Amino acid sequence: MNADDLAEIARSMGADDKGLVAIDESIGTCNRRFAALGIPDTADRRRAWRELIVTTPGLRQSISGAILCDETIRQETSHGASFVSLLDRVGILPGIKVDAGTIELAGHPGEKITEGLDGLQARLATYAEIGARFAKWRGVIAVDTDRPSRGCVEANAQALARYATICQQVGLVPVVEPEVLMEGSHDLPRCAEVTEAILRAFFRHADEQRVMLEAMILKPNMVLSGLDCANQEDADTIADATVNCLLHTVPAAVPGIAFLSGGQSGELASARLNTMHLRFRGLMPWQLTFSFGRAIQQPALEIWGGRDDRAQAAQAAIRHRAGCSQAARRGLYDASNEIRRFTGMAC
Hints:
By secondary structure, the chain is of the alpha/beta class. The protein has twelve helices and ten strands.
């Protein structure tokens, strides 16, 4: 796949005010979420849950791509259709998470580095043969008074850049996820400082590694106070801090920025994205969209609870939250009008 084709796929991932749904949790993470709701942590129930998501009627109206994990990209529906072929048929791009998780960064106590570069090119080629059109890699940055260290920022930024250029060489669009974690007592200015540092470092390494900016998607955190911070700012303050951080660091050549939800509720994630579009419409050089996981899934997972007779109600919840995320891109999301019965796409 040539550079123009990759760039076109990257642009299409944010077209028509659509975004991504992340259903790429590891087996362990998915099992923990199941356990909290009393759902059996079996391969069959994981398959049933992911099938419920990818077969949601009308999902393509607001979702352009779905990020899968290794288990899910190889699975089939109860009718024998592969998830990849099903997504292709309805016009949703299949994607794949390719990092191998985090380990302690040697010499930097309490800090993490993401593994998975060894053998990545061969793995990506296999996923491309299965039908993936894009990939995702997550770097994790924790924050406190003396973290992250420069060594941690540089190591994660370089790994993200190496991943991105290998993706493009194989013919997949890289989704680059440098996540500054919400856990901690840091305030919003500290989050902005760290977010700006990791983004500057990534784009410096991306230039050195010859990443084609036109053929990638950035998946960053919003700029937020830590969960344990006493001062939790309003949506206007968050929007200003987040978009200004991105304007200072992300080149205009990047076609799309798709926020992770990072543990925010669906309502908060939508409200904050909505405010960014209200305050900065026409001032941003890239498409500003969403790549939400729990913010779209969690209400539906609670409704489903592992019971197939609740699948339609759970799908309505997924459709609702995805529709609210799309409405936020248009500056039309209204939290006061949340439709609790998930009877439509309006918000």
